[in-house]
Structure formats: structure tokens, C-alpha cells
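Lab channel / #folding
Pinned by the channel admin:
"Please post every new chain as: sequence first, then the C-alpha cells as a reply. Keep commentary short and put observations after the output so the thread stays searchable."

First post following the new format, from NK:
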Amino acid sequence: MDYAKFFAEVADWILMVNQKASEHGMQSDAFWDWVMHSSGEFGVRYKNNELVVRQMLMLLDWLELVHKKTMEG
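Reply from TO:
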């Protein structure tokens, strides 16, 4: 696995997360649909490599935490 390529894609994905959150809002179905679809594409692209799966799960947990904190004010 090309780790440099993978982590560069992760960094790009995080930038896209910020863009999608600005466009749709973190509370929207459109945002979360995009998050789930795009994170799943990593698994497909990297044949569900354990590091890839765990990295994406960590990022999803992080997004949920950010969303929760935002909703709490």
C-alpha cells in the first residue's frame, strides 16, 4: 500500500469535509450522505485494508464529536 498516497487522500478528504459542511451544514442529510459514501469509497479503493478502515472510522467518530459539540453550543 502506498501510505503517502493514502494519507494525502485523507488530507484532501478532510478539506472536502469542511467544504461540504459549509455548503450543506453538518446537520443535513446531504452532508452525512456524502460523508458515508465518500468514506466508504476509501474502503473499496484500498480493498478494506485494516489501517484504512480504522482511519476512516476514527475520522467518522471525530466528525460525530464535532457535530455533537456544535449542537450543544
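NK: The helical segments are 3-24, 29-45, 50-72.
TO: also worth noting, Residues 3-72 form one domain.
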